[in-house]
């Protein structure tokens, strides 16, 4: 259902996410493409959907402080309306509390009329007693405190505390609950970064060069970028700075044959093509044949001809690469996405710690299958957008234990200008709170036998 009311549209989107496990960005883009919601209401819709998803844990905790009925026992319509109302009351400064309450109750009378009084009471009571809300004790239960204060699953905050200690885990938790930066990668086949910075500025975009990626630009204020002439002219593509570094670590050379095994939507494939001067061969493969269209569309827009797309399950032998030998292989493995939950906040509520072991098994299966397609002396880059050790160091160590023909290369010696981004073992690990980019991991493996 489309609506001129951004709050009703936000409710409809949140309902679909709960029922269908849909992706927020796709649903928001679809709603805005109808061009029914106008002006500032477009921004409000986006803010409400992402804000509620990012702060869902905190919102549910607040509801639990004031509702006699357990949060998980509330009807879905009632729970979503309470989340929407409380998010506006507690996290949106530009919306007066009175307006937030009144608009939510008005919506409740339409969607859940029998519960409108209950919703009104909870919202007003929470606002009056916001200073009396009891949160978990930070000293006694640091993971529980971080989970509620910054709205993340408790199993995940426990993992962060174990990885980096309470102080840094809190900085990470805070960063992961904020909106992410919007970063693009320059299409160096057509324009330099300096020239594109000037072009974007002339188009009214506030932007700056990224710190680590030599081809990245951060857009501070841009509006809808697909409407920019520079986007239509294929001068850039959207890609986070951490993701832009992975193809650099692969170090493709002109004339190489490269396999990008889990390629959709194609950001790294097209960047590899740029680094190779659009020469050689790039096999961009994905298990989902529908996603190959995204890669083709991006290649067409950027004017790239060296990328060929194939459907392939990377865990098993495929006719797409039968008897083909590669100089470089990129495995951007399917993972939990824990490093990008500020971009896809709906995802953190549907995952559990138990998922990580199964994901690690799949990741190891992919490496086991693909390593035989790499020539002697070739480079394999294993990468994920996860913060978990289980999907990263554990996977690499398990693979190396079973494959003595491979060694892990120390990225510190190969890329000294990026040394602050590498671990003591020479792996790449970026963190939103430290580095201003998504949580990412990469290990460079060399086939020596």
UniProtKB/TrEMBL annotation:
Keywords: Cytoplasm, Methyltransferase, RNA-binding, rRNA processing, S-adenosyl-L-methionine, Transferase
Residues the entry annotates as binding S-adenosyl-L-methionine: 262-268, 286, 313, 332
Gene3D superfamilies: NusB-like, Sun protein, domain 3, Vaccinia Virus protein VP39
Compartment(s) where it occurs, according to its Swiss-Prot or TrEMBL record: Cytoplasm
One record GO biological process: regulation of DNA-templated transcription
Role of this protein: Specifically methylates the cytosine at position 967 (m5C967) of 16S rRNA.
GO cellular component: cytoplasm
EC top class named in words: transferase
PANTHER family: NOL1_NOP2_SUN FAMILY PROTEIN _ ANTITERMINATION NUSB DOMAIN-CONTAINING PROTEIN (PTHR22807:SF61), NOP2 YEAST -RELATED NOL1/NOP2/FMU SUN DOMAIN-CONTAINING (PTHR22807)
Active site: 385
SUPFAM superfamilies attached to this UniProt entry: NusB-like (SSF48013), S-adenosyl-L-methionine-dependent methyltransferases (SSF53335)
Keyword Acetylation: no
InterPro entries linked: MeTrfase_RsmB-F_NOP2_cat (IPR049560), MeTrfase_RsmB-F_NOP2_dom (IPR001678), NusB-like_sf (IPR035926), NusB_RsmB_TIM44 (IPR006027), RCMT (IPR023267), rRNA_ssu_MeTfrase_B (IPR004573), RsmB-like_ferredoxin (IPR054728), RsmB/NOL1/NOP2-like_CS (IPR018314)
A Pfam family reported for this protein in Swiss-Prot or TrEMBL: NusB
Primary location: cytoplasm
CDD domains in alphabetical order: AdoMet_MTases
Protein known as: 16S rRNA (cytosine(967)-C(5))-methyltransferase
EC number: 2.1.1.176
Taxonomic superkingdom: Bacteria
A GO MF term: RNA binding
Catalytic activity of the protein: cytidine(967) in 16S rRNA + S-adenosyl-L-methionine = 5-methylcytidine(967) in 16S rRNA + S-adenosyl-L-homocysteine + H(+)
Signal peptide: none
Domain SAM-dependent MTase RsmB/NOP-type: 172-448
Family indicated by similarity: Belongs to the class I-like SAM-binding methyltransferase superfamily. RsmB/NOP family.
